[in-house]
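Entry 14. Structure prediction run on the chain below.
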Amino acid sequence: MDAGLATILIVDDSPENLAVLSELLQTDYRVRAATSGDKALRVVKTAPKPDLILLDVMMPEMDGYEVFARLRADTETRDIPVIFVTAMDSTEAEIRGLDVGAVDYIAKPIVPPILRARVHTQLELKQARDWLANQNAYLEVELARRMSENLAVQDVSIHALAHLAEIRDPETGNHLRRTQGYVHALAEQLANHPRFRDFLNPRAIDLLVKSAPLHDIGKVGIPDHILLKAGKLTPEEWDIMKTHAKLGRDAIEQAERDVDRPLDFLVMAKDIAHYHHERWDGGGYPEGLAGDAIPIAARLMALADVFDALISQRVYKPPMSFEDAYTIIAAGRGTHFDPDVVDAFIARFDEFCQIAIRYGEAETAALAQRQGLAAASG
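Output returned:
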C-alpha cells in the first residue's frame, strides 16, 4: 500500500458495517478497523497513526461518546479529527456529536458519495491544519534562533565597546567582569525590596548586567596624558577626567539615534554611564543629583565601581584589603551611597569577595590569599 496514503480508523461493533465502510474507502485510503471502543483506543496508539477516525456512536460497553472523550483527554490522540457515524438520525443526536467536538456527523444508512466527500474534506482540512502547525513550529524555532543571534550580537557589541575604554586604561584588567558581578549581586538582593522591586524585575536585572560594562565608555574621549598619568591629577586635569561621564552618555545617545526604535539596554547603559559618579548626598558629578533623583541602575553601579577601585592596584596606590574597602563603603551609607544599596552590599559582601578573587588581578588574588592566611592564623 502506498506509504503516502492517509490512514482512516473505522470503529464499529458490527462486522457488516466495517466491511461496507472498508470497501468504500480502501481504494483511496489505508483503512484500519476496530470492533469496540476499547480496541479502538489500543489501535490508535499503534503505527500507522490514523489521520481520521470514523466512530460509531451506539456500541456496547463503551459508546462512541465515551471513546471520543478518552481520545480528547490523551495528548497523543486529542488532535485526530473524528466523524461520528450513527443510525440515530435526529437533529438532537447530530447537535450533541458536534457539540462535543466531532468534525462531522454522518447518519446511516451510508450514502457512498456523501461519505467519500466528507472524508475527503476532513482529510484536506487536517492536512491544512498540520501544515499550519508545522509552519508555526518552524517560525517559533526560527524566531528563537534569530533572537538568540541578536542577543549574542548585542552582547558582543557591548563588550567590544566597553573594551575600547579598557584597552586605553591598562590598569582596569578584569574590572568589567567584576563590576558586572557586583551589580548582579546587588540587584538580586534588592529585587524584593519595596523601593526597588517595581524596577528590578528579571528583565531589568538582565539589562542592567549587560549594560554595566559600558559605564566607563566615555574614557575613550579622555586624552592619554590625563587618562594614563602615573601621579595625582591636577584640579584642571580632574575636571577633564570627570567629563568622561557626559562623553559616555553622548556616545550612547548617538548610537540610539542610529536605530529605528528605543533599545532598553541602551537607555539603561546611558543612565549608568552618565550618573554612576553621582552621590546620594548630591556631592557627585556631572549634575550633582541627589537621592532618588539618581537612576537606580547608576546607584548600584556607583557602589560597585568604588568597591572595585578600592581593592584594585593602581600606579598611585596599592590594593586595599577587602575589610578596609568594606569599612569605607559602610561609612558612605547615606552620604556617598543609597543606604539600602549599602545594606545590600553588606548582605552580599562574601559574594563580592568571591567575585573579586575569581576575576581578580594577580595582586588582588595574592592579597586575598594573605588575608585568608592571616584570618586562619588569628
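The longest helix spans residues 112-168.
Filed with the rest of this week's runs.
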